[in-house]
Design goal:
Isopropylmalate Dehydrogenase, 11 helices, 11 strands, globular, 316 residues, eleven-stranded mixed β-sheet, 41% helix, alpha/beta, Rossmann fold
Length: 316
């Protein structure tokens, strides 16, 4: 299925404008041996978001660039024989301090993430890895996040707490002073028949006790109540989160993935994708992404990298 043409809401554009005020960040681009991957890296460099380090077979990269009429001379190329070696070398560059962002090229996602989570040589932290979609939906008044829609298949309570902490940190890096989090389920009442409602109630209590900091949580909330004040009022729900969400926490990967793709294909939303919980931000782009979405993914990573470096990132 082909996506509808984007109309552009201005929300991603404001994010990109703020990032152009920041200095470019060194980014290890892992195995960009396909047109979309190589163009994404060069587009981000031309937008002055990153200084790409292209990690892959040099001969193959040069041949691809020549065919696409792209100039690689301004960019550093690290020659490795294959995609597995590229992932390992890119992680090594991060560990050495030569790169502050990882960006996926045309290798398989599992191969890419395997190098990141390798116990002795990877980029693990105390946090669980999680994925965030930063959504620009034309009919919603601000950018919001959906998590986790790509990594954690059936997260338990402690996993969800880490997923939330990662997303809250990112929202704050993007300038949201107190992110509003809707913890999604099928209903808004707590019932033992739907385990995600129990998790939602527990997460809200964890926030109340200071185990999850920096955000305002509410849940369980069905999607309509989370996204619409009117829908919440109709059901008698009094919530400071409803209708003004910054983060939607999905009950599991299937729900989060379907929600993000439905918004993308039916509501003409753009999705910027990022993996959190590693030592550095990790950019995941898709061949189906628009140029706006690809640049927004990198821009979000740049904002987070600057936040970690300086403690500030500004508002968007």
């Amino acid at each position: 299925m082909k996506k509808s043409a984007r109309t552009g809401t201005g929300k991603y554009e404001r994010l990109l404008a703020t990032c152009r005020k920041l200095s470019p960040v060194d980014a290890a681009v892992v195995y960009p041996c396909e047109e979309t991957a190589l163009r994404a890296a060069i587009e981000a460099a031309q937008a002055r978001l990153i200084r790409p380090i292209l990690v892959g077979p040099a001969k193959q990269l040069v041949q691809l660039a020549r065919r696409l009429k792209l100039d690689l001379d301004p960019y550093q190329v690290v020659d490795v024989p294959d995609s597995q070696a590229a992932a390992a070398k890119a992680v090594e560059l991060v560990r050495e301090g030569a790169a502050e962002i990882l960006m996926k090229g045309s290798l398989h996602t599992d191969e890419f993430l395997a190098a990141i989570v390798a116990r002795d040589t990877g980029l693990r932290t105390a946090r669980r890895l999680s994925h965030v979609f930063v959504m620009d939906v034309p009919d919603y008044h601000k950018v919001f996040m959906i998590t986790d829609a790509a990594i954690n298949i059936a997260p338990g309570l402690e996993d969800k707490a880490d997923i939330l902490r990662n997303a809250i940190d990112l929202a704050i890096a993007l300038g949201v002073k107190q992110p509003k989090v809707a913890i999604l389920s099928a209903v808004e009442t707590v019932t033992t028949k739907i385990p995600s409602t129990i998790d939602a109630a527990a997460l809200c209590k964890m926030a109340e006790r200071g185990q999850i900091r920096g955000a305002l949580l509410d849940g369980p909330l069905a999607f309509d109540n989370a996204i619409s004040k009117a829908a919440a009022r109709t059901k008698g729900i009094h919530s400071r989160v409803a209708g003004d969400v910054d983060i939607l926490l999905a009950p599991d990967l299937e729900a989060g993935n379907m929600l993000a793709k439905q918004l993308s294909f039916l509501a003409r939303a753009d999705c910027a994708g990022l993996v959190l919980g590693a030592r550095v931000p990790v950019v995941l782009t898709s061949r189906a992404d628009s140029v706006r979405a690809r640049l927004a993914s990198v821009a979000v990573a740049v904002r987070l990298a600057h936040r970690r470096r300086t403690g500030t990132a500004g508002d968007y």
